[in-house]
């Protein structure tokens, strides 16, 4: 029970308050959602990714294990969601929205605090979570951009859009600077810190603004789609992760960290992509909102069954 209340009070409730503030602001002032989306994509998200990679110690062996897990896990998740996409016979825009709602999960502003709570601030598991967050930041800014644009524009424009995403340059730069122990000058380090600190708040406000701009009424077919997305993300996700870590024969702590990292709700990136490229915005917002609420119970169950000992 104590874990349940810790997750509720330290992760879900603060996120809910921030989202609610975004809803209130949108209903009061009709904010420009496109501007908020661009701030997240081009400033705050790259800043927090650079900051965490540069400051977190990660061994080569851990990188190899996590990357192998991530590739297998994403392939398995893709197969599962693709079976639903084909069975439901979605339009192209909805196909990409459903895939994004399952493949992109909230490894940053939900996953990092959850990791620290579940593993008592372990530096080893934090390193694993940072790697997952890095890959989860990279995929939406490459494959995600492609998936929401491929059906409505030419490939040259799609690649131009992908190459304009700062995150694909920030990640290797952070690893290089850390690897060669290059110090960041204070006039640069301070703005990076400010932007990094602003990421979580701005992303959650953006979600709230999007939720505040839509009708809170879901038709029966839409409700089914949101339910399918939540099932694949919150139940099939950690179950698949458990199977993979078992087959890989990973040590108990690494396996537990990877399973917990896979159990978090749909990422805000799916909403930001939907808003930025005008692709099924309401469905994207609803999947994030509903999966975040349901994760109160599913994440608690995952942690309980893992019997984590740190």
From TrEMBL:
InterPro entries: Mem_transp_PIN-like (IPR004776), Na+/solute_symporter_sf (IPR038770). It is found in: Cell membrane. The keyword Cell membrane applies. Its main location: membrane. It is a multi-pass membrane protein. Keywords: Cell membrane, Membrane, Transmembrane, Transmembrane helix, Transport. The keyword Transmembrane helix applies. GO terms for cellular component: plasma membrane. GO terms for biological process: transmembrane transport. PANTHER family: AUXIN EFFLUX CARRIER FAMILY PROTEIN, SLR1864 PROTEIN. Belongs to the auxin efflux carrier (TC 2.A.69) family. This is AEC family transporter. It comes from Paenibacillus pinisoli.
């Amino acid at each position: 029970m104590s874990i349940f209340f810790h997750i509720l009070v330290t992760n879900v409730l603060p996120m809910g308050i921030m989202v609610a503030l975004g809803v209130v602001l949108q209903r009061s002032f009709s904010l420009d959602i496109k501007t908020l989306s661009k701030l997240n994509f081009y400033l705050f998200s790259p800043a927090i990714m650079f900051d965490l990679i540069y400051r977190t110690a990660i061994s080569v062996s851990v990188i190899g294990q996590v990357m192998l897990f991530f590739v297998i896990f994403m392939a398995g998740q893709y197969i599962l969601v693709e079976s639903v996409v084909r069975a439901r016979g979605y339009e192209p825009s909805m196909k990409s929205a459903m895939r994004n709602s399952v493949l992109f999960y909230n490894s940053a502003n939900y996953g990092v605090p959850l990791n620290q709570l579940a593993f008592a601030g372990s530096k080893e598991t934090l390193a694993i979570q940072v790697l997952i967050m890095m890959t989860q930041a990279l995929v939406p800014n490459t494959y995600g951009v492609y998936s929401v644009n491929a059906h409505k524009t030419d490939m040259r424009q799609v690649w131009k859009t992908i190459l304009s995403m700062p995150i694909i340059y920030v990640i290797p730069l952070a690893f290089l600077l850390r690897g060669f122990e290059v110090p960041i000058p204070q006039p640069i380090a301070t703005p990076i810190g400010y932007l990094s600190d602003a990421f979580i708040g701005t992303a959650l406000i953006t979600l709230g603004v999007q939720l505040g701009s839509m009708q809170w009424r879901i038709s029966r077919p839409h409700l089914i789609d949101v339910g399918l997305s939540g099932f694949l993300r919150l139940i099939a996700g950690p179950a698949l992760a458990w199977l993979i870590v078992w087959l890989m024969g990973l040590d108990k702590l690494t396996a537990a960290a990877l399973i917990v990292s896979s159990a978090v709700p749909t990422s805000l990136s799916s909403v930001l992509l939907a808003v930025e490229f005008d692709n099924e915005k309401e469905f994207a917002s609803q999947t994030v909102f509903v999966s975040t609420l349901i994760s109160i119970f599913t994440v608690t169950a995952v942690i309980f069954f893992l019997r984590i000992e740190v």
